[in-house]
Amino acid sequence: MAKEGSPNIKLPITHFENYDFSFSGIKTAVINLNHKEPNLNKADLCASFQNAVTEMIITNVEKAVKEFDVKKVALAGRSF
């Protein structure tokens, strides 16, 4: 659904001093928003969730690259 939507919904992004990830806050925000606004465009919500999670991952990877002087980064994933 994210492919069909626009990432136009502001969702909370958690930042840690270390390289930990926590998606519990953003997942809770999505669930709550979906319940509070049942007519919300679900494709936009999915695209916004995808955008926020991607931003969190990229931020941590960039931080690690700078701190540890990493020369190459490889990311793998699955697209549906």
Protein model, in words:
With 80 residues, the chain is an all-alpha fold. The chain has one domain (2-68): ATPase, nucleotide binding domain (Nucleotidyltransferase, domain 5), CATH 3.30.420.40. Helices cover 50% and strands 0% of the residues. Helix 1 runs antiparallel to helix 2 (42-68). 8% of the residues are buried. The mean pLDDT is 92.
CATH fold descriptor: Nucleotidyltransferase, domain 5
The top level CATH class name: Alpha Beta
What do we call the CATH homologous superfamily? ATPase, nucleotide binding domain
Largest sheet: none
Average pLDDT value? Answer: 92
Q: Number of helical runs?
A: 2
CATH-derived architecture: 2-Layer Sandwich
Rough outline: elongated
Number of strands: 0
The proportion of residues in beta strands is: under 5%
Q: Pick out the low-confidence regions.
A: none
Rg of Cα set: 15 Å
Number of domains: 1
Helices and strands, in N-to-C order? HH
Please estimate the helix content. 40-55%
Spatial separation of the terminal alpha carbons = 10 Å
Structural class: mainly alpha
